[in-house]
Specification:
This protein is an alpha+beta fold. Among the domains are: 90 residues; 117 residues, Cytidine Deaminase, domain 2 (3-Layer(aba) Sandwich). It is 49% helix and 10% strand. It has a 5-stranded mixed β-sheet, with helices on both faces. It is elongated. It starts with a helix and ends in a 7-residue tail after the last strand.
Length: 333
């Protein structure tokens, strides 16, 4: 016969074991971050003997531990794993900026030897000065500053072939210079800029200076500004009471051998400038400064009109190409 008291004590021991199993399962799942299933180990072990329940707990614990090493399924209570960003390749270095090209449409880059030629010319200029350069070298250097990506040597030689000299090339009319192949607006502007700089330098030698005491400087300025003109021009130099230059104004531009001049307009302008003396100047494009009969008569008319207002006419100079003539020195004034 069974002992009722012993059976009762075994029943109480089983309930304690089940409570222990249930609490152990909860702590184990909490440590592993797992949720509790609907049917717990303790419930399923309720019908087992104590020894079998303990073995079942050990087996379940091993299963839970091994399953925790695998990736757990996504649940609403679980925290999603942070995705590792994909590996990225380093960005390639930026392409070098292209150099700005000049406005002038230029051909391909000159060969390296040509660049060396330019460097030698610069060195020659800086060491020996501009007097060491020939006319075509001067023109070439002026042009390669304006046309840095062109071979300017053929253009310089074409200018000399047409104009004859550096001075004639920079002083040539714009319409004539446009006929030079390859010169373009940039080269044309460079030549005219050099001409303008030369004239300003010459003008600075006579400004605010008594012209009658600086006659050679005055003639150099007039030769630079008028000797190479292709059409006849008439200028009036207006002087103050100390014979200093107030203004050099072109009164008229004419044809190759005639310029209309109006004495009344010259005297009117002298009064506006408060000038007390005049020097008349005009050029002969032919290069021969010999005065014509019309030159002598026009000079006499201006002298008479100015004398009425006590304005002195000092001289009338005629400028040819490298030559000049003074009407006063010739006794024609």
């Amino acid at each position: 016969m069974r002992n009722p008291g012993g059976q009762k004590g075994h029943h109480h021991a089983s309930e304690a074991s089940l409570a222990f199993l249930d609490q152990a399962e909860l702590e184990l799942r909490a440590a592993l971050g797992l949720s509790r299933p609907a049917a717990s180990l303790a419930t399923s072990a309720a019908a087992m003997p104590a020894s079998s329940a303990a073995a079942s707990l050990a087996t379940s614990a091993a299963v839970i531990t091994s399953s925790s090493t695998a990736a757990p399924p996504a649940t609403s209570n679980s925290t999603p794993a942070t995705a590792r960003p994909p590996a990225t390749r380093p960005a390639p270095p930026p392409a070098p900026a292209l150099p700005l090209l000049p406005a002038e449409s230029d051909p391909a880059e000159p060969p390296p030897g040509y660049l060396g030629h330019r460097a030698r010319m610069r060195e020659k200029l800086l060491k020996a000065g501009p007097d060491a350069l020939l006319d075509h070298e001067m023109l070439e250097m002026v042009l390669f500053l304006a046309l840095p990506r062109r071979d300017t040597k053929p253009i310089a030689k074409a200018l000399l072939a047409r104009c004859g000299s550096f001075a004639n090339a920079i002083a040539a009319p714009v319409e004539e210079l446009r006929r030079i192949e390859g010169l373009g607006d940039a080269g044309l502007a460079a030549l005219k800029l050099v001409q303008g700089a030369a004239l300003r330098l010459q003008a600075a030698e006579v400004l605010d200076q008594p012209l009658l005491n600086n006659w050679d400087r005055l003639l150099a300025y007039l030769n630079a500004s008028l000797a190479r003109e292709r059409i006849e021009q008439f200028h009036v130099l207006y002087l103050d009471s100390k014979n200093r230059l107030i203004a050099d104004e072109a009164q008229a531009r004419g044809t190759v051998n005639h310029t209309p001049v109006y004495p009344r307009e010259i005297v009117k302008r002298a009064l506006e400038l408060h000038a007390t003396a005049l020097i008349l100047v005009h050029n002969h494009p032919s290069g021969d400064p010999t005065p014509s009969r019309a030159d002598i008569e026009m000079t006499a008319a201006i002298k008479q009109a100015a004398g009425v207002l006590e304005i002195v006419l000092h001289d009338h100079l005629i400028v040819g190409n490298g030559r000049h003539l003074s009407l006063r020195r010739e006794g024609l004034l």
